[in-house]
Amino acid sequence: MKRMHILLFLSFAVLGELSAQTKNNTFIVQDTLSLNLTNAEKLFLDSNLYVLAAHYNVDAQKALIIQAKLIPNPNFSYARGPVIPIHDDQSNIPYSNFFNHGEDAASLSQLIQVAGKRNKNIKIAVANAQLAELQLFDLIRTLKYTLRTDFYTIYYLQQSAKVYDQEIQALQQVVTAFNQQQGKGYIAEKEVVRVKALLYSLQSEYNDLINQINDTESELRTVLRVKQKYIVVLPDTDKINSLTPGSLNLTKLIDTAYASRTDLLIARKNTEISQLNYSLQKALAKPDITAIASYDKQGSYVMHFNSIGFSMDLPFFNRNQGNIKSAKSMIDVNVATTKATEATVEEQIFRALQKAYDNQKLYDRIDPKFASDFERLQHEVMNNYQKRNIGLLDFLDFYDSYKQNVLQMNNIGLNRISAFEDLNFYTGANIY
Asked: Shortest CA distance to 15 belongs to which of 172, 170, 177?
C-alpha cells in the first residue's frame, strides 16, 4: 500500500506544471516583444539601418543626375604687367611699370562638348540612380526573407521548446521524488539511473534548442533594430494552414520573377549601363572644342586688339582606344552575367516549387486527430501506470515518443512554410 502511494505521488509529479512556457536568458533579457508578421515588417522598414543607408545612396545617385545636366562653366583669365618695371628708349612708351602705362590682357573661353557627351553622361547618371533603387529593393527583399524565415523558425522552435520544458519539469520532479525515497528500497536503482540519464539528455537537447532560438532571435533583433528583448512571435496560424501550392504554375512563376526579381533587374541594368558607357567612351574619342574671345590692350601690333578663336586636342596618339575596348568587353561580361542569373532564377523557382509540393504532400498526410489522440492516450497511459499495468520506463518512453512526434510535426510545419517563403523570395513577389 505504501508503494502505491509513492507511485501515485510520482504520477502527479510527472503531470505537474505541463502548461509552463519557455523563458530563456531572463537574467539578461527582461522585456518581451510580441510581434505579428505585419508589425515586424513595418518595424523593419522604419528602423533598419541598412535600408536607411541604401535610401541615402539612392538620394546621392539622384543628385549626380543634377550634376550631369550642368553645362561646363566658362573660363575667364586676366593679366596685367609688367610686374618688373621696363625702361626702353626705343619703345613708344620708354618707361612702364605695373601701375603706369601697363599692359592689360583678358580672355573668355567656353568648353563645347561634342558627340553628345553631355546627354550620354546624363543617361548614365539616370541609369546609376535606377540601379541604386534596384539595389535598395533587393536589400529589402533579402532582409525581408531573413525576417520572415526567422519569424517562423522562432515560432516552431518555441513550440518545440515547450515540449522539452514540460518533460524536463516533469522528470525533474520525478528525480526529486526518487531522491527522497532513495535508500528505502521502494525504487529500483536502475530505474533511477535511467530516469536521470533521460533527464540529462533532454536538458542537453533543450539547451541546444534554446541556443538555436537565441541565435535566430539575435539575427531577428538585428534586422528589426531592437535591443535586449525576448521576442514572442504571433503568426496567423489559420492563414498558414490554408496555404497550398496547387494553384501555382511554373511558367507563370518564372515570368513573375523575370519582371520582379531585383537581382535579375540589377544584372540587366548593369548591362544597360555598360552599353551606355561604351557609347560614351566612343564619344570621348572625339575632342571637345573650346571657344575663345580675347582682348589685348597694347601687346599686339595695334592698340586694343580683339580676337576670337578656338582650341582643341588633336587626336593623334590618344583616341581613347583602351577605354573603348574595355567598355566593349564589359558589355559581354554583363550579358553573360545576366544569362547566368536568368538560369539561376529558373532553377531556383523550379526547385522551390518542387519543395513546396513535396512538403505540402507530407503535411497533408498528417492526421489532424493525431495530436488529440496523443492527449487521450496520455491519460490512458497514466491510468495504466497507476494500476501498475505498465512500468515507469514504459511510461517515460511514451513521453519520449510524444516529444519526438511534436518535434517532427513542428519540423514538417517549418519546412512547409519555408518552401512558400522561398517561392516569395525567388520570384521577388508576394505570391503568398
From this structure: 170
CATH number (3.30.420.40, 1.20.1600.10, 1.10.1410.10, 1.10.3720.10) of 2-72+113-285+320-427 reads 1.20.1600.10
> What are residue 107's DSSP bridge partners?
77, 294
Cell numbers that stand for 129 in this block: 540612380
Rounded CA gap, 386 and 375, in Å? 17
Give 108's DSSP letter: E
Beta bridge partners of 33: 231
pTM: 0.82
**First-residue to last-residue Cα distance in the chain:** 61
pLDDT in tens, 121-150: 999 999 999 999 999 999 999 999 999 999
CATH topology of domain 73-112+286-319: Outer membrane efflux proteins (OEP) (2.20.200)
Rounded mean pLDDT, 142-162: 93
245: closest CA among 380, 65, 424, 73?
424
Cα 209 from Cα 216, distance rounded (Å): 11
Please say whether the beta carbons of 255 and 75 come within 8 A: no
Half-sphere exposure of 191 (CA within 13 A, CB side): 20
330-368 tens-digit pLDDT = 999 999 999 999 999 999 999 999 999 999 999 988 877
